[in-house]
Amino acid sequence: MKRGVLQLAVLSLLRSPSYGYDLLNVLGTAGLRTEEGTLYPVLRRLEKEGLLESEWDTSGSRPRKYYRTTDSGRAVQVALIAEWAAVDRALVNVLDRVGGRTNDGADADPESRSS
Amino acid sequence: MKRGVLQLAVLSLLRSPSYGYDLLNVLGTAGLRTEEGTLYPVLRRLEKEGLLESEWDTSGSRPRKYYRTTDSGRAVQVALIAEWAAVDRALVNVLDRVGGRTNDGADADPESRSS
C-alpha cells in the first residue's frame, strides 16, 4: 500500500523544488514517516523515469541536490490522485457494505454494554 | 497500491462467507474490478496465512468453495483499516500543502482565463 502512496506524495511535494532531508521532514510531519533508505531510491528511480529532475545547489555550506517534478511527473501525479480517489471510494463502498468502517461490531448488541 | 487494498476488501467482505465468483462481482460493483487470476491467489495466500478459512458446499448443482474471514483475519482487517485511514489523512495533508487536490493550478492565474 505504501509504495504508491510515497510516490504520489513525493511527486506532489516536489512541485516545489526540495532536497532529500527536507522532504523526509515534511513527509514525517504529514504522517508518512519515511527512512532515507526508502526515500532516496524512490527519488533516483523517479528521476530515471523522467518524472523528477534534479540540480545541485552548491551555494550553501554543503552541496544539496534539489529535485523537482517534471511536466511528465505532474501528469503522473494527477493520474495517481485520480486513482487514489477511485480506490478510496471503492473501499468506502466495501466497508459500508459490511458495516466495518466505523464499528467492528462491538456495539452491535446494545445489551452487551451492560455486561 | 492495489494489492493491500484488495486484501483489505477481501478480508472485509468475507466476514460474510462467499465464493470466488460472487466476490469478483461484488468487488467489481464496488469499483475494484479484479481478475480471477488476481483474486484466487490472494484467497489461497490468505487462507494459508490463517486469515481466511474455506469449506466446500456440494449441495448445489456444482461444488463451490466458500471462504470466510477467521478471527485472526478480522484482527488484520481492523489493523489494515486503521492503516488505510492514517495513510489517507497523510495524503490529504500532503495534497492540501501543495494545493494539488482539487486544482492542478490551471486556474491559479486568473488572467490565463482570458487568453
In CATH, what is the class of chain A? Mainly Alpha
Shape summary of chain A: elongated
What is the mean predicted local confidence, pLDDT of chain A? Answer: 87
The CATH H-level homologous superfamily of chain A:
Winged helix-like DNA-binding domain superfamily/Winged helix DNA-binding domain
In CATH terms, what is the architecture of chain A? Orthogonal Bundle
Find the biggest chain interface: A-B, 37 and 37 residues
The succession of helices and strands of chain A, N to C, reads HEHHEEH
CATH topology of chain A, anyone?
Arc Repressor Mutant, subunit A
Strand order of the largest sheet of chain A: 1-3-2
In DSSP terms, counting alpha (H) and pi (I) runs of 4 or more, how many helices of chain A? Answer: 4
Give the structural class of chain A.
alpha+beta
State the end-to-end distance of chain A: 39 Å
Residue fraction in strands of chain A: 5-15%
Helix content of chain A: 55-70%
What does this structure look like?
Two copies of one chain form a homodimer. In chain A, a hairpin with a 6-residue loop joins β2 (52-57) and β3 (64-69). Chain A is α+β, with helices and mostly antiparallel strands. Chain A has a three-stranded antiparallel β-sheet. The first copy, chain A, contains four helices and three strands. Chain A has a single domain, classed as Orthogonal Bundle (Arc Repressor Mutant, subunit A), CATH 1.10.10.10. Chain A has helices spanning 2-13, 20-30, 36-48, 71-98, and strands spanning 18-19, 52-57, 64-69. Chain A is elongated. The longest helix of chain A is centred in the last third of the chain and has 28 residues, at 71-98. Chain A binds chain B through residues 1-5, 8-9, 12-13, 15-16, 26-27, 29-32, 74, 77-78, 81, 83-84, 86-91, 93-95, 97-98, 100-101, 104, and chain B through 1-5, 8-9, 12-13, 15-16, 26-27, 29-32, 74, 77-78, 81, 83-84, 86-91, 93-95, 97-98, 100-101, 104.
